[in-house]
Amino acid sequence: MNFKKNINENQNGFQLAPMVDVMFLLLIFFMVSSIYYQLEKNLEVKVPKAESGTDVDRANVELIVNIDKEGKYFVNNIKMDIDGVREVLNDIVKKFNQSQPIIIRCDKETPHRFFVKVFDICQALQIDDVRIASEPYELPEAK
Q1: I need a labelling partner for 37 at 20 to 30 A (CA). Which of 51, 57, 103, 143 fits?
Q2: Would you tell me how many other CB atoms lie within 10 Å of the CB of residue 48?
Q3: What is the pLDDT, as a whole number, of residue 44?
Q4: Domain coordinates in residue numbering, the chain
């Protein structure tokens, strides 16, 4: 009686199933993370630096208005004119209330008049929570 199995110990095959699992998980991770990142920021807008900025906890339903250096308005990466921004903000106030957080992200080279238009709309709609996005200055390293 021969109980030994005929096993070829020189298997040079590549295990494909673990590689497919890893690639599938990476694909899901990058798809989910890119969707959330794209909805909030226009990557072409470079906000100015500020010393007095504070990091505020993010709300679930905040609205981000991006203004690029040419004065074009983007809400959730949808280009619109100032009347479109007014309609969106008006709908937000009707749906939620005046405590809806609004974040205005202006490019550092945007003329001031484009920011003032959005800020005036927020004031006219009596929106309480209007924030201005900025980046912190680089702090010197401690020696």
Answers
A1: 51
A2: 14
A3: 65
A4: 17-51+58-137
Q: Indicate whether 109 pLDDT > 80.
A: yes
Class of domain 17-51+58-137: alpha beta
By the 10 Å C-beta count (0-12 exposed, 13-18 middle, 19+ buried), 31 is classed as: exposed
Q: Looking at the chain, which runs of residues are DSSP E strands?
A: 49-50, 63-67, 73-75, 78-80, 102-106, 130-132, 135-136
Name the pTM for this structure. Answer: 0.62
Q: How is residue 1 written in tokens?
A: 């009686």
Which pLDDT value is given to residue 136?
76
Which tokens is 125 given?
A: 């709609």
SS3 131: strand
Distance CA 82, CA 71 (A): 10
Integer Cα distance of 41 and 80 in angstroms: 15
Joined tokens for residue 81: 């004119």
Give yes or no for a contact between 99 and 128, defined as CB atoms under 8 angstroms apart.
yes
Query: CA 85, CA 76: separation in Å to the nearest integer?
Result: 11
Q: Which residue has the tokens 């008006």?
A: 90
